[in-house]
Structures are given as structure tokens and as C-alpha cells.
Amino acid sequence: MNNKVLRTALALLFIGSSLMVFAQKAEETITIKSVIVCQSCVDRIQNDLPHLAKGIKSVKVDVVTSTIVVTYKTDKTSPNDIRKAITAIGYDADDMKADEAAFKKLPEHCRKGITEKKENAKKPAGCSKPCSPGCGGHR
After folding, report:
1. Which pLDDT value is given to residue 4?
2. What percentage of the chain has pLDDT greater than the value 90?
3. What is the mean pLDDT of residues 103-119?
4. What confidence category does residue 139 fall into, taking pLDDT thresholds of 50, 70 and 90?
5. Does 3.40.50.720 match the CATH number of domain 25-122?
6. Largest Cα–Cα distance of the chain, in whole Å?
7. What CA–CA distance (Å, rounded) separates 95 from 98?
8. Counting beta carbons within 10 angstroms of the beta carbon of residue 5, is it exposed (0 to 12), middle (13 to 18) or buried (19 or more)?
9. Residue 85, CB half-sphere, CA atoms under 13 Å: how many?
10. Integer Cα distance of 26 and 32 in angstroms
């Protein structure tokens, strides 16, 4: 009799732990390129993003690499939803452009820094002058 109770208890324990493993939701981490210029940008993205996209577990923003690393629950949101949320804050997200109205609400120093960083990224290496479309460089 005790042997039967012990086997039943072990079977229930095994089934319960198996269900707990399957019940856990999958998490993924993505890295999104953007243009980030200062600590104000970092704080804004890290604070606002979890409120705009469900299932965000963590947000790490790096000014030096201009990347946003997001860990999220796959059953709550998607990479595209996260990108849309970043654009709604006023920042580019990979190939998605920032929402213009949100960008205009950013502090002036952020807007200016982002614009300058984008313009400098378009210049040929070693170019110091403003460039026009199709510029071959100024040497």
C-alpha cells in the first residue's frame, strides 16, 4: 500500500514539474540599431519602452554602439512591435524611421545630436564639409 502511494506521489510530482516547464513562456533577446546621443536618450528609451510594448523584460541602451538590446516574452510582443514602440518614442529602429511628431517632442539637444550623427554617417571617411546627395567627398 505504501509503495502504491509513493509511486502515485512521484508520478504526480513528475507531471506537475513537466507542466511547469511547458507553462513557462519563451523569451528572446534582439538588438536594434538606432541613433542615440546622450544619457537623456538612454533614460527615455529604457523608461518608456516597457510601457509601450507588452512583455518587455529588460532594455539596455548603448550610446557608443547605438544599439538597444531588448529581452521580451515572445507570447506578448514581437520584434516588429518593439521597433514600432521605439519609433513612437522618437527614435529610429533598424530600418524604421522615427515618428516625426515624437521626434519633435525630444529635447532640442537630442534632436540636434541625432541629426548631426545621421549627417556624419552619410559622409565619406575623412570628409569634414557638409555633403549633398551624390557627393564624392572633399579632399
Report:
1. 75
2. 65
3. 94
4. very low
5. no
6. 92
7. 10
8. exposed
9. 23
10. 19
Buried b (16+ CB within 10 A) or exposed e, 32-45: bebbbbeeebbebb
Alpha carbon distance 100, 81 (integer Å): 18
| pLDDT for 40 | 95
Yes or no: say if 113 and 76 are a contact pair by the CB < 8 Å rule.
Answer: no
How far is the C-alpha of 51 from the C-alpha of 134, rounded, in Å?
A: 41
| Domain limits, the chain | 25-122
Q: What does pTM read for this prediction?
A: 0.73
Starting at the edge strand found earlier in the chain, the sheet holding 56-62 runs 27-33, 67-73, 56-62
- Compute the distance between CA of residue 131 and CA of residue 134 in angstroms, rounded to an integer: 8
CA 14 to chain centre: 38
Residues making up the chain, counted from first to last: 139
Residue 103's H or E segment, with its range, is helix 100-105
pLDDT-based confidence at residue 71 (cuts at 50, 70, 90): very high
C-alpha torsion 66→79→54→106, nearest 10: 30
